[in-house]
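Project standup — Tuesday

K.O.: blocked on the structure for the chain from last sprint. Re-posting the sequence here as requested.
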Amino acid sequence: MRQNIIVALVLSSLLLLSGCGSDSDTFVQTPTTVPQVVSLSLNSQTGGTVLHPSGHSATFAPASLEQDTPVTLSLLEASTIAVKNESEFQPVGQALKVELGGTSVIGQVQFEIPYQTAQPQNHGVYWHLPQGISIPLLSTYNASTKSFTASVDFTNDALLQAADVRARLDSTTLTVSVVDETSFLGRPAHVSWSSYNLYVFQNGAFTKVVDQGSAIGTIPAPGANPLMIVHGLGSNTKRFEDAATYFANQGTFTQIYGYEYDTLDGINTTGPRLNTAYALIETNPNSQWKHLGHSMGTLISRVAFENGTNPPYQSNSVVFAAGPHLGSAAINKLQSSLSIFQQFVRFLVVNEVLDFTNADGTPCAVDINDQGFTDLAVGSTALNNLNTGAAQNHPEETYRTLGGNDRGLEYDGADFVMGVYLDDGLVDLTSANATVIGAVKSDIVPESHSSIVEDTTNSLPVILSDLMQ
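H.V.: unblocked you, prediction finished:
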């Protein structure tokens, strides 16, 4: 039986009210005489459609439910849905919320959301998780019905069989809405940075002392035991203030610096500039530097250390956290599909996981062919060249590595978008702890790609201990 209960509600007319998007946009608002909630019992084998009188609907494919279940569809004002990056992603119109009777979606469910707009290309459908994460979905607009459709599909998602992941990407309740992306889509194009920025950690915060290669303030002397931090793709130095605070509280470093670079440029452009930054700071060839690189920052550091140029110090204890030394299969997947790449970038930006800026700090657009992405792919020319004889190419530096094996909610969502599941969300352990680079020690911590340089319980103590070796 396809439907155990048929909801037959006839709406003679729909009231069109002004929407939250552009002036030409309107959304379908249900009159107060029509129920805001409708329910239907669905058979797990045959599925079915739960249709609201306003035109909002959820269609469950056959075998898409774990078991027979009542399904409730209710409408929400989009203004009640909070996204992390509200300045560039605004939910508009009416969202729909589907609640299942204690069971989960294990297949495909398609949503239809009425929304009238003259600029459908500036809108998309997002799945909003209860924990505040928003996942962009591939969506289409039907000008005839004036509605968006999008699907959430768990059919081939073996990862969701894991209890911890199923709990984080909960499919017993699904909330979706149309989101206005006009501001995000209006970002300026990426312009390569002319040089690098340098920061020093003082009074609990990083202060910029070099702007695009030019000193803008006094650069404190490094002292006997300085630390350099190099961030990763789509990140910046200020994201390391908590880590720097942790290190500073240990009383072990005389100065802490942060090297900041254009992550959309290639590693062979930004890596040599790190040596320039070191030369600007250091005048004592006997200094004992410590160095922390994260993600793409590990490759930037290796380019600087392994290019055959003697650094302006005697030795350096180096820790590489979550480094894609052998590349990341996530990048290969992104480069195989423009639509997935665009979804992925939206996910990063709307959830404030990563972002990309021009030299003036203005958020910029990204392109699938930006060298910063291309260099991180498994099998890239840049990585093949860097890894040739790598273990013998850093006699002044001692490498130690660590990788994470817990994606957490943010990277479960990112990997769900890509359909590629990696140990920390972006990098597998075999890449983070690659033997080819000649590390003397490797560790595994229960952290995601971002939290590995944030957590004061599992990872930062390991990093600190390794730095002080």
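K.O.: great, moving the ticket to review. The two ends are 68 Å apart (CA to CA). The CA atoms of residues 315 and 396 lie 5 Å apart.
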